[in-house]
Design brief:
Layout: E1 7-16, H1 22-32, E2 36-42, E3 45-52, H2 54-66, E4 73-82, E5 90-92, H3 113-119, H4 163-170, E6 191-195, E7 198-202, H5 203-215, E8 220-223, E9 228-233, H6 237-247, E10 255-257, H7 261-267, E11 268-269, H8 272-278, E12 285-290, E13 306-310, H9 315-321, E14 328-332, H10 344-350, E15 357-361, E16 373-377, E17 380-385, E18 395-401, E19 404-406, E20 416-425, H11 435-451, E21 458-462, H12 468-480, E22 484-487, H13 489-500, E23 509-519, E24 525-533, E25 538-544, E26 547-548, H14 559-570, H15 579-582, H16 586-598, E27 604-605, H17 608-618, H18 630-638, E28 650-653, E29 660-663, H19 665-676, H20 681-707, E30 711-715, H21 722-734, E31 738-740, H22 752-762
The structure holds zinc ion (2 copies) and fe (iii) ion.
Residues 161-162, 164-165, 183-184, 186-188 line the site of one zinc ion.
Length: 764
Amino acid sequence: MSENARIRQRLIVRGIVQGVGFRPFVYGLATRHGLGGFVGNDSNGVFIEVEGEPAALEAFARDLQAEPPPLALIESVTSMPLPATGETTFVIVASEGQAGASTAISPDVCICDDCLRELFDPADRRYRYPFINCTNCGPRFTIIRDIPYDRPLTTMAAFPMCAACAREYHDPTDRRFHAQPVACPACGPRVWFEAGGRATAWDDDAIRAAQAALRSGRIVAVKGIGGFHLACDATNDDALRTLRRRKGRVDKPFAVMVRDLAAARALAEVDDAEAALLTSKARPIVLLRRRPDARLSALVAPGNAYVGLMLPYSPLHYLLLDGLDMPLVMTSGNLSDEPICKDNDEALRRLASLADGFLLHNRDIHVWCDDSVMRAFEGRELPIRRSRGYTPFPVRLAQPAPMLIATGGELKATFCVTRERFAYLSQHIGDMENLETLQAFERALTHFVKLFRIVPERIVCDLHPGYLSTQWAERFAAAQGLPLVKVQHHHAHIAACLAEHGFDPDARAIGISFDGTGYGSDGAIWGGEVLIANCRTFTRIAHLKYVPLPGGDASIKRPYRAALAHLWAAGIAWDEDLPCVAACPPEERRVLCQQLERNFHCPPTSSMGRLFDAIAALAGVRQTATYEAQAAIELEALCDDAEQGHYEWVSAPSAGGDALVLDPAPIFHGIMRDLHASVSRQAIAAKAHNTIAELIVQVSDHARRQSGLNVVALSGGVFQNVQLLQRALPRLRAAGFEVLTHRAVPPNDGGLALGQAAVGGFRA
Ligand code: ZN
Ligand code: ZN
Ligand code: FE
């Protein structure tokens, strides 16, 4: 073929294409097809120029899309013709920063099989090196300071490569070609063990020192990928008691790290979907049904039928668990309610009273990122907490939205920023109830704004005037002169579900939004809401009947108060024999009674979370809670699958006739009858769950008659409850409904910001 037949093209590839071995992949592909040209990263993604015969260019373009590297995700490829220059060699060119541009960034992923093999190969020069990684694995999001993703802009900038590493880094045929965090024992970060205020061991000795401390029941702070863990022997009651006391954590379950899938199966039931989740590159904590014979301290997850297990994800974890014959509690390194520690100095200071020793290293974590928590439902993931391994992977919206910041809720806070069609949900920030968490929110937001080059056109927040996230949004919008959009909490939940399912802004669905607390458009505490909604607006067509809740949200930690409020509303006497009445001190009971009689400090609430609390307390399951939704979680754990019965409720039009009001009073009468008939708590728990499932079908049917809609979206924290999902979905499908549940973001308030972003972005 003559020289004249050569053509040249410029291609722009967007998506997750940086830090995932994309340039070496392009290099290999171009070389294979005999093309000249170059490939490079810029702040938009990857740019390529290729030159050669038309058929070869065509094959190149096809293979580019057909077989990208494992961690890459191509969003789009655009091409434009250029005049041929005669170039016949292909090279990788230096990165170009660009103001205002943006590209997707890979989440942190676990060590790959190749690196794992080398880690335990005595002949390999990275044998037992805790920072082994390659282009297919290792930290990303947590070490990136800015884009483009190149070593100088990561926390690896402090470690100049040795000659051997540099050779691999520059060799296009090597697995470590342009792997930014590449390092080895000669040039890379090191690990050491500190106890009593000084370093006592380095490298492999440090890992052995940490293992020895763990074996003797000590608590060791371990610096990981996204922050510090507090580790201890998960079979040792004394160690767990100490950890709970020091951390100020009474009952809330701890996550456990086990060495492999077989070890997980020894502790919990693991089905195929759960096994896939456990071994996925994101390596989340997976909530699994605990085996009765599990060799685990009862103090790991008291009163819980589930246990959160995860597999090692960093090489350091693999080394720590190697030869250590015990599962390890691995809980975030913080005091309860504080953000997780990520820096050495900070950890040595803040965790001094919590840990007996520290396994530290000198690769800095630029942004913290807690472990993610997942459940499996119907063979798919149901996110409970979406963080490490997922952040900052975007959710793709149905349409481009204006650039905005949605500030989220209060508990399990996250925020969301949008750019074009992408919604970037932040890592888990925590409960935004104190200054530390608000500061963590601001730090994370600053990072996202920089990373994704966000120039917000509007700010979006919850309606609740008391949320720190709302107050921040009000201050920020005022200071920047930006419009502020406030989105009702339960509308945001449903919008989050619709948005992750790619719904057009105008496409409506029936939304069942059940959670603990959200600020209602009428100022009441909502939480048992049925909406007709799209990503712009909503109509509330049904809700739980308002019950006066003395002290409002102050009752969250005392489920017996929710029970007394519901008994009051149902006209059932507070009989001393009832566990929820007995749990309430007489003086408090007297005050509650007065408050209810005078309707003083008794905000009306339609909360489904409080209804679950009340049922759990009345059934004698739990009277006081030490963590959010504890009573509901323990009620869920009790459910007897064989029980098919349910309780009654009453639906009637509201006073104005604009909504259907669902009165749960008959549920309490039914439970009272069952208590007198000595029906088991397991049966009562199952009947309560069946009741809510039946109620969901009935209101959905009502909504369908009103709207003609056939799609039901389930959102809100109540839908973390798998026992409820398992009962509601078959019933809804049998009634002919299409059901949407969460797969990408949590149904709880951790997913709220996505819904806010959708509504804030699409509302005119
Ligand atoms: Zn690797
Ligand atoms: Zn090296
Ligand atoms: Fe909520």
